[in-house]
Design a protein that fits this description.
The complex is a heterodimer.
Chain A: E1 5-7, E2 10-13, E3 19-24, E4 31-37, E5 44-50, E6 53-57, E7 65-68, E8 75-79, E9 88-95, E10 102-103, E11 107-111
Parallel strand pairs in A: 2-11
Antiparallel strand pairs in A: 1-3, 3-8, 4-5, 4-9, 5-6, 7-8, 9-10, 9-11
Chain B: E1 10-14, E2 19-24, E3 32-38, E4 45-51, E5 56-58, E6 62-67, E7 72-77, E8 86-94, E9 101-104, E10 108-113
Parallel strand pairs in B: 1-10
Antiparallel strand pairs in B: 2-7, 3-4, 3-8, 5-6, 6-7, 8-9, 8-10
Classes of the chains: A mainly beta, B mainly beta.
Chain lengths: ~110, ~110
């Protein structure tokens, strides 16, 4: 069964550094998403992306965050200047029309 | 010292028993709900969904019940197995196309004892 794949599985970075989290959505999916889960808490919506533009973003997704689909397969989340409170699991998800979200296994981001 | 972070509701069952996990929602306009399972170190995995024009839907070993009057849904797992141990989230799915968005609940940690 096709899967959403995310790399790296764990990223450690220093406060103030830029990080790029990478995702390869399922190939025939049209809609792409990033969600975040702080340890022990619920999964929170960050941003949705369709047709090469952001469809919706949450209040968490401030100017420090950006997303990009640089080619036909990758979907990236960039955090320009990381803060301690950005430490979380970041999940990429994708879906096709009229189907549920399929999630990747996440990237654990640790900001020190 | 003071603990930090949310404490998940927990449910502990014996292998072979049936499990019932509950979820409440607040928005009367919500019309599509999904249950996700999250195993340790993995992303949420789709289990079953239900639309508001139904009050029950069955899958393999799982049943979702929806009570719109009291804004409550439940996930029933029959003959629970150790592999069912995970955090279970209900989610409210709204919109369609590029406006589709999931809002997750807090989750319930299910532990299955052999």
């Amino acid at each position: 069964e096709p899967e959403v794949t995310q790399t790296p599985s764990h990223q450690v970075t220093q406060m103030g550094q830029e990080v790029i989290l990478r995702c390869v959505p399922i190939s025939n999916h049209l809609y792409f998403y990033w969600y975040r889960q702080i340890l022990g808490q619920k999964v929170e919506f960050l941003v949705s992306f369709y047709n090469n533009e952001i469809s919706e973003k949450s209040e968490i997704f401030d100017d420090q965050f950006s997303v990009e689909r640089p080619d036909g397969s990758n979907f990236t989340l960039k955090i320009r200047s990381t803060k301690l409170e950005d430490s979380a699991m970041y999940f990429c998800a994708s879906r096709k029309q009229n189907s549920p979200l399929h999630f990747g296994n996440g990237t654990r981001l640790t900001v020190t | 010292g003071e603990s930090v972070g949310l404490h998940l509701p927990t449910l502990s069952v014996q292998e072979g028993d049936n499990s019932i996990i509950n979820c409440a929602y607040s928005n009367s306009a919500s019309d599509y709900f999904i249950w996700y399972k999250q195993e340790s170190g993995k992303g949420p995995q789709f289990i079953i969904d239900i639309r508001s024009n139904m009050d029950k839907r069955q899958g393999q070993r799982v049943t979702v019940l929806l009570n719109k009057t009291v804004k409550h849904l439940s996930l029933q797992i029959a003959a629970t197995q150790p592999g069912d141990s995970a955090v279970y989230f209900c989610a409210d799915a709204r919109g369609g196309g590029s406006n589709y968005k999931l809002t997750f609940g807090k989750g319930t940690l299910l532990t299955v004892n052999p």
